[in-house]
Amino acid sequence: MPKVLIADDHPIVRTGLKQIIAEEPDIKIIGEASDGNEVLEFLRKEPCDLVLLDLAMPKRSGLEIISEIRQIRPNTAILVLSIYPEDQYAVRALRAGASGYLTKASAPNELIKAMRKVLSGGKYISMSLAEILASEIDQHTQQQPHERLSDREYQVMLMLAAGKTVTEVSRELNLSVKTISTYRARILEKMNMKNNAQMTFYAVENHLLD
């Protein structure tokens, strides 16, 4: 029987996921995690077949967690279940090693379908994500400025573009203000920008914000 770990920092979301999965008698939930460190600690002690992972986890970014799960448990499937639209993070999550990507707006039956697909060794992407991937392949020779950013830089860029201050970003990511300021400087240099306002304009123009 496949064993599943639910990783989300919101208890209500975890409860909802458990209720949906409880209706599938051949899938077993063996644990829950509320932050990135708990996910990795659990997996070091206990093997599981699938991690249902929220990208917006405290203490570590979801993309970092995916990469580390791949090192600790390379055979564990990772299905990302996120509030972020597919065009923001899905491609990066799949590149990091996720087996599939779903938004939290997805229907429960789509979640179960996705879980079964990745548990069988496949990849799960929605029709809209397939279009995004196809478009990216078509445009691979014309790399956009934000695609030159590392995963962490991209995450910081989106937060700053959404109007958050360096202090707010540092608090949310559990990093020092100095570290976030360094990321900001790198982002501006890589994207040939001078300030946060330009970041916001770019993010809106390229549909990177909700």
Structure, described:
The structure is a single chain. The chain is globular, with a radius of gyration of 18 Å. β3, α3 and β4 form a beta-alpha-beta unit. It has two domains: 3-137, Response regulator (Rossmann fold, 3-Layer(aba) Sandwich), CATH 3.40.50; 145-205, Winged helix-like DNA-binding domain superfamily/Winged helix DNA-binding domain (Arc Repressor Mutant, subunit A, Orthogonal Bundle), CATH 1.10.10. α7 crosses α10 (196-205) and α8 (166-173) packs across α9 (177-190). A five-stranded parallel sheet has the order 2-1-3-4-5, with helices on both faces. It starts with a strand and ends in a 5-residue tail after the last helix. It is α/β, with parallel strands linked by helices and 210 residues long. The mean pLDDT is 87. It is built from ten helices and five strands, in the order βαβαβαβαβαααααα.
